[in-house]
Amino acid sequence: HRYPVILSGARPQFRVSPITHASGWLSTCEGFAEKVGSKLGRTCSIGKSALGKGVSTFRGRCQKQETLVREIEGINDAMAVLRPHWKDIEAEFDRQNVRYLAMAETDHEAIGRVLRAHLIVENFMNSYLVGTFKLEDFDGMKLTFAQKAKMLPQRKSSAAWVRPGIIQLNAVRNKLGHRLDHVVEFSSISTIQDVLSVARDGVSFESPIDAIEAFAPVACAFLTVPPRHLANAFSEAFSYVHSITPSEV
């Protein structure tokens, strides 16, 4: 039987849905592409059957199952309806595969660097919130990054100074998470640059991503709950600090 390949996951790995019909038995087929394209620079292991031209159609025979897959009852009837349209279905999958490959070839380095900074800052922010507000079952609260950032004090705290930058970091991360082609501009990290102008005085950054990576350790340092013997000094030092969220600027 011939049927289109169903893409699964972000990696260049392709699986085929259990959509074949033979003598009343439902077979499940699975294969892996050996190559998606030279530009991806990746090679995947290939099973007993092969996928032609990266991602197109899977041809072969699958081992019959001894039992029906009850959770997809009716799939045989559905496939019987679609069978006359395989040619058009395969053509549509080919078009979608071209779109997939174009997205997969996008430079993901920026996404990875921002995500790493975001995760590390969140880890320190969790510790700060628990230590400052004595929160119990903090993990059970299931707070989002944005909610945690909004909980940071806006005045009289070292965290207040980096709070706007942390909120901007989250905004950048969200845009990268929803648009693969998003380009981070310096204008979108203005408060991060404000912090760096003091914490990294005299240092220039070639790209916004470089600035974000430089901001992360600064944010983490000021999210650290000071030991008891330094608490008063920190409180006095930041007693005049007041910040607002970037969206209010």
Question: How do the helices and strands line up, and which of them pair or pack?
Answer:
Blueprint (H helix, E strand, L loop, with lengths): L1 E3 L1 E2 L6 E2 L4 E3 L2 E3 L29 E3 L15 H8 L3 H19 L4 H25 L11 H7 L6 H21 L11 H10 L8 H15 L5 H10 L12
Antiparallel strand pairs: 1-6, 2-3, 4-5
Describe this structure in words.
With 249 residues, this protein is mainly α. Helix content is 46%, strand content 6%. It is built from eight helices and six strands. It has helices at 75-82, 86-104, 109-133, 145-151, 158-178, 190-199, 208-222, 228-237, and strands spanning 2-4, 6-7, 14-15, 20-22, 25-27, 57-59. A two-stranded antiparallel sheet has the order 1-6. The longest helix is centred in the middle third of the chain and has 25 residues, at 109-133. It is elongated.
The N- to C-terminal Cα distance equals: 61 Å
Largest sheet: 2 strands, antiparallel
How do the strands of the widest beta sheet line up side by side?
1-6
| Rg over alpha carbons | 26 Å
Write down the overall geometry. Answer: elongated
Overall SS class: mainly alpha
Please state the average pLDDT score. Answer: 74
Count, helices: 8
Low-confidence stretches: 1-66
Number of strands: 6
Instruction: Give the percentage of residues in beta strands.
Output: 5-15%
Q: N-to-C SSE series?
A: EEEEEEHHHHHHHH
Q: What level of helicity do the residues show?
A: 40-55%
